[in-house]
Amino acid sequence: MPSPTTVSLKFVYPAAKYHQDSRTVTIYKQDPEMEEPSEVYRFEHPSSGMAIGMTAFSKKNTNTGEWDRIGHIEWTSPLSGAISLGGNEMTIKDYRKVINKTSTSRRFKYRGTEYKWKCSDHIKNNLYCVDAHDTVWAKWYHDKSVMKVTYNTEELLERFIVTVLLNVWFLQKEAW
Question: Domain DUF6593 spans what residues (predicted)?
Answer without folding.
Answer: 39-152
